[in-house]
Amino acid sequence: MISKQIIKGKCVAISSEGKGIIKTVYGVIFVDALLLGEEAEIEVTYSRAGVSYGKIRKLLSFSQDRINPKCPISTSCGGCVFQNASYKYELEYKTNKVKEDLIRIGHFKDIKVNPCIGMENPEHYRNKIQVPFGKANHHVIYGFYKSNTHKIIPLKQCNIEDTRAKDILSTFASLMEKYHIDPYDEDSRRGIIRHLLIRTSSLTDEVMVVIIASVDSFYNRSDLVKELTQKHKNISSVIYNINKRDTNVILGDKEKVLYGKNFIKDSILGLNFNVSSKSFFQVNPKQVEVLYSKALELAKLTKEDELLDAYSGVGTIGLLASKYVKHVTSVEVVKEAVINAKKNAEMNNIKNITLLEDDCTEFINRELPHYDVVIMDPPRKGSTPEFLNALKLIKPSRIIYISCDPATLSRDLEILSTDYKIEVVQPVDMFPRTFHVETVVSLNIRDTK
Ligand code: SAH
To answer: According to the model, what pLDDT value does residue 448 have?
Structure first.
């Protein structure tokens, strides 16, 4: 196939990134915004080695699940691939995706996957956004990257971000113009402002603003911060983060507090948490309560249990679990998150928890400590064979695995499956309108071992 070629076809499946799949004699085409069963005239946009990408030129038949997207840039942004589909369709896709990965990657045969638990109102849920800044027609613009590029599509309000971000972004852009502060340009490597990271609290009205810049400081910085915080009284911190690197990593290492505190306060299921700019915190405050409640229910904790909370972030799961067990050990590699976690234990007056800054794989293999139950919540890339094999040696009776990537989850569960039997697989929609899905899995040790 070649670019611009027009091909007619029917969508027979949905890819792991939510694109419609059309099979042709020339190979497979992944099509943006095409729903299962729909027929369309497709324009090929990119093609290489039998795999092509395309966009809809004309829809020839409509799925009953097609809806009008609420977002004006839904087909170009690449963030929300399901803005044009009913939420029911999206949840079914997510349930199936987890099941298909468990079968294809994990080699599980008769695996039961519970229907994905959706959100009551799947909009404006994100408590953290990272918005790139650029320039067009001599004006400062901000928005989202066009999918697979670094070209900014301007957008004033995103349909999934917390509504408090909108006005702050707009004020910040006008202040950049007022003080002649240029956005950073990746090609020429000139300019100053790269991104604005905004975190909102679900506990209070507070907002944290992180200015990510390419230089150590800039003229008028304090005036800009003063005006910003005077106009938006709910801003509780302004952090200045310096990133001089030319990589896709958004945050740099060095930070300075320009206004207020170096953390934002949030709450989950009645406990309060301090979260710094660099600490991981689940992005959907409503659904995180559903996810953690499910994880705790499946863990069937007792007062005799020694619990390991692996990949613990700011200590959320371990602290919530602490009242049901004898003792918790939480292990997390990011220093700032562990500092937050220790403060969080103190703030909530929780004493039966040890919070360690360590690499989980190194920690567990150093002493092979015994735990009755392990709750693990690794990043997208999953855990390591060394960590999983160590679990088989220390033999906790139950493992709860929380994952945001069904592919790495399936790979890791296959390793555990020699010694552990899957009891429940429960997808939870933490990221409505996107193709991402979170899953919590409970595993019981096999009797024969
Ligand atoms: N359980 C927490 C955090 C989950 S995100 C919560 O629900 O909020 C995954 C966490 O694992 C991140 O905080 C990340 O910093 C941490 N992490 C990544 N690799 C790690 C490793 N090798 N050892 C320990 N922690 C790690």
So the answer is: 61
